Amino acid sequence: MSATLVIGRYSEADRAALASAFDPLFLTSPADIAGLDAGLRAGITALAFKGHAPLDGAAMDLLPNLGLIANFGVGYDAIDVAAASARGIRVTNTPEVLNDDVADLAVALLLAQGRELIAASDWARSGRWKSEGEYRLNRKVSGGRAGIVGLGRIGREIADRLAAFKMEIHYFARSEKDTPGWTFHADPVSLARAVDFLIVALVGGAETERFVSAEVIAALGPRGVIVNISRGTTVDEAALLDALEQGRLAGAGLDVFLNEPGIDPRFYALSNVVIQPHQGSGTVETRAAMGRLQRDNIDAFRAGRPLLTPVN
Ligand code: NAP
Prior knowledge:
Layout lengths: L2 E5 L4 H11 L2 E3 L10 H6 E6 L7 H5 L6 E4 L9 H6 L3 E3 L6 H16 L2 H9 L2 H5 L12 E5 L3 H12 L3 E5 L10 E3 L2 H7 L2 E4 L13 H7 L4 E4 L8 H9 L5 E4 L18 E3 L8 H20 L9
Helix pairs in contact: 1-12, 5-8, 9-10
The structure holds NADP nicotinamide-adenine-dinucleotide phosphate.
The site of NADP nicotinamide-adenine-dinucleotide phosphate (NAP) has 28 residues, from α8.
C-alpha cells in the first residue's frame, strides 16, 4: 500500500483538499510519527509537511519507504534536506506563489514603522486625537535608501516595490545580478553603511545564521531601521534587541523571530518595533495557491511525473 502522511496545522480548506485527494493520515508534529505502528509507517511513501518543527534524519528513518517530502512553504529550513537526499527522499517546496504577499508585508512593515501606523491608530481610537490634537510628526520613507539583504525571488519583489517608492536600491546577494540602476554590495556591512532601511529576505538555515550581525547593525547606525520577513535566525536577535533598547538603531519591523511564537518579551516593551505574527504568506488566496502546489507535487510524484518545484 502507498499511503500519504500529512504533518502540520492546515486550514480547513487545505485539510479537506488533502483528505479528498489522498485519504491521508493526519498528524500535528514530526514527534507524533514514532507513535504510529510499524506497519502503517512502512506504508507511507509521501509526506505533506507544514510547520517549523525540525524534520530530521531520525524522523525519516521511521518511514522506511518514504520517497517524497512536499513542504508547504518556500522556506524548508526545518527539513534536513541533506538527510533526505542521503536516503533517496525527494523534497519539494512552494516558491513564487507567495512572493507578492511576503513583499507586500515587507513594505507594510516599513511604512508602519516609519509612519507609526499602530501608535497613530491608537491615538485616534483612544480619543487622544480629539482631546489632545494632532499626532506627532513621524518619518518619511519614500525617497530613502533601501538595502535588500538577499535579492532572491522575494527580495526582488520587495526591491521593485521600493523602487516605485522612489527609493535608492542597494542589495547584497552572493553574486551581482542584472539590476541596472541598483547598487550591488558583496559585503553586508558595506550595504548597511550605504542605506537607511535594511530589509532582510535571505533563506534561513545554518548558513545564514546571524548574517545580519552586530557589526551590520552598527554599520546601519542610529537612524537605521531593520525589516525582517525571512527567518528569526538570519538576524543576531540579541544584538538587535540591545541596539533597539539603547537607541543605536531607530526601529524594526519584524514578521519573524527566534522561538516563535514564544518570542523574547523584550520586543513587547519596544515602541519603535512593529511586530507581526509570522504571517508573510498568510492570505486566503496565497495559502490556497501554496496548498495547491504542495498537492500538485504529490500528484506528480505518485504519477511518476517530474516534480514541479524540487529542492533536491
Ligand atoms: P530565494 O529566491 O532562494 O532567495 C534567497 C536569497 O538568500 C538569495 O538572495 C540568496 O542569494 C540568499 N542566500 C542563500 N543562501 C545564502 C548564503 N549561504 N549566504 C548568503 N546569502 C544566501 O528565496 P525566496 O523565495 O526569496 O525566499 C526567501 C526566504 O523568505 C525563504 O527561504 C523563507 O525563509 C522566507 N519566507 C518568509 C515568509 C514569511 O511568512 N515571513 C514567507 C515566505 C518565505 P543568491 O541571490 O546569491 O542566491
